[in-house]
Amino acid sequence: MRTDEIGNVLGFLPEAHLGEGSTGLIVVLSAHLDTVFPADTPLAPLVNGDRLEAPGACDNAAGVIGMLAIAHALLHAKFEAPVSLLFLANVGEEGEGDLRGVRHLYKEEALAGRIAAHVVLDGAGAESAVTQALGSKRYQVVISGPGGHSFTDAGTPNPIAALASALAAIAETPLPAEPRTTLNLGTIHGGTSVNSIPEIASASIDCRSIAPEQLVRLEVAVHRAVEDAVERANEIARGNGVAANKLLSFAIHMIGDRPAAQLPADSPLLEALRAVDRHMGIRTDLRLGSTDANIPMAQGVPALSMGAGGDGGGAHTRQEWYSDKNRETGLKRVLLLTLAMAEWAAGL
Ligand SMILES: [Zn+2]
């Protein structure tokens, strides 16, 4: 086992395949270590009937424990998978983590090119799988200018006015219902007092779609609207004789970027999932979500995210709970799917 420079923990079966010079395909089973809760959140796990109540108990202690259980079962049975398995406990899945743990695996690790398939364990359940990766791009728009006194500096271009007209234009961007694409103006900040021309105004914007081309289209729309609004404000200011060094400028920062993708209908991973379903008498419900599987899926690596069995609720709240009732079904499903993909990878 080893810990990489950002805190991901990697363990291989068999261990020998950890070596630098090793080659061959790998199947990844991963679970994220991070939670949405601040580090100082009080943790006093409570056992209530068959429920374990604690922040993070389900999302994603259930996934991490499930992954360790699979590794333990394979070790215990001295079972050698036909290709190496990488067990990855990764950081940075939630919110502003922006999938940085798995992103790092695919960007920085020399072994990234050897990954044949990737199963992500996230939370509870044994009836669904996320096979459509909802992409999101988040921006912070910042418009700044010299600011000034509302009366004596009147005519100086106003960042709030320019931002407001940019946001009004962005809000009118047409959004297709299919593929479902959304745009949200989330926050707005700026100004110091009612009688000051503000120096700065900013807003954050969230765009989501399963279609990468829609996200590109929205990115262009956001840039165009901001650029047009700032240019218009500057043009008026120039007309009023405002000096070139007193005009507005803008910056658009990408504050989140999760790629959109979809597991193709003929993906070997879907085929394996259906075979496991048949064997176990389950009918997996295929869902849309934003998970660690977004990263491999967007790179064409067969990947999905599924629960590690049992039941849970209250995710992302302090009332979160997990129950290990019928967890065996979920674990069996994960184990069979992982080994089926190892079998498939061995034949490549
Ligand atoms: Zn999670």
Describe this structure in words.
It contains seven helices and 19 strands. Helix content is 31%, strand content 29%. α3 (159-171) runs antiparallel to α4 (212-239) and α5 (268-280) crosses α7. The protein starts with a strand and ends with a helix. With 348 residues, it is an alpha+beta fold. It folds into two domains: 2-134 and 261-346, 3-Layer(aba) Sandwich (Aminopeptidase); 135-258, 2-Layer Sandwich (Alpha-Beta Plaits). The relative contact order is 0.20. Zinc ion (ZN) binds next to α1.
Output mean pLDDT. 95
The rough form would be described as elongated
- The CATH class of the largest domain, by name, is Alpha Beta
The number of distinct β-strands equals 19
Amino-to-carboxy terminus distance: 27 Å
Strand-residue proportion: 25-35%
Number of helices: 7
Domains, number: 2
Mind telling me the CATH superfamily name of the largest domain? Answer: Zn peptidases
Helix share of residues? 25-40%
What composes the largest sheet?
9 strands, mixed
Summary of the model, kept short:
With 348 residues, this protein is α+β, with helices and mostly antiparallel strands. It has seven helices and 19 strands.
Write the layout of secondary structure elements.
Elements (H helix, E strand, L loop, with lengths): L1 E2 L5 E5 L12 E7 L13 E3 L2 E3 L3 H20 L7 E7 L9 H9 L6 E7 L6 E6 L1 E10 L3 E2 L9 H13 L9 E10 L5 E2 L2 E10 L2 H28 L9 E10 L2 E2 L5 H13 L4 E5 L4 H5 L4 E4 L4 E3 L7 E3 L3 H20 L2
Parallel strand pairs: 3-6, 3-7, 7-17, 8-16
Antiparallel strand pairs: 1-2, 2-6, 4-5, 5-19, 8-15, 8-17, 9-13, 9-14, 10-12, 11-13, 18-19
Helix pairs in contact: 3-4, 5-7
The structure holds zinc ion.
